């Protein structure tokens, strides 16, 4: 965990790789709950037998499930002390280069690519790469934008 004492310290880290998070196993229960929450019950996600015979050999996580795990996967990478709040402001670019099969382990790496001072704090752009254990291609590459208020 990389801890910054304040937003000024974070700003000084612009352009730096911030580290890697902990591994997280993707379970069928997570996939099923996400399918229920979003209404996306496509067979490649929730029909175990059909998915085993499908193109990936197992059920796969929704791309948006992988994307939604970014806060969980990044929380062990860096923190800024003294914040009143951090708010997801959006995404600039998201890609899903490789499917995540059930039982796979994923983790995130983060790079602080931009930081902009605003009246209420700072806006940080963090490039997050969600890696799949033992797979050279990432599951997700996303440019996340976060508003940090001190």
From TrEMBL:
Residues 12-128 form the MaoC-like domain. Pfam families: MaoC_dehydratas (PF01575). Belongs to the enoyl-CoA hydratase/isomerase family. This is Acyl dehydratase.
């Amino acid at each position: 965990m990389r801890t910054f004492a304040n937003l000024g310290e974070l700003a000084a880290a612009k352009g730096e790789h911030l580290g890697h998070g902990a591994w997280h196993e993707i379970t069928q229960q997570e996939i099923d709950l996400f399918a229920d929450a979003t209404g996306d019950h496509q067979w490649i996600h929730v029909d175990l037998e059909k998915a085993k015979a499908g193109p990936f050999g197992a059920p796969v996580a929704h791309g948006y499930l992988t994307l939604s795990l970014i806060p969980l996967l990044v929380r062990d990478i860096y923190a800024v002390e003294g914040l009143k709040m951090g708010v997801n402001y959006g995404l600039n670019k998201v890609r899903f280069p490789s499917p995540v099969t059930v039982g796979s382990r994923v983790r995130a790496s983060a790079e602080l690519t931009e930081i902009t001072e605003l009246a209420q704090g700072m806006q940080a752009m963090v490039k997050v790469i969600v890696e799949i254990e033992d797979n050279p291609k990432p599951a997700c590459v996303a440019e996340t934008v976060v508003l940090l208020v001190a």
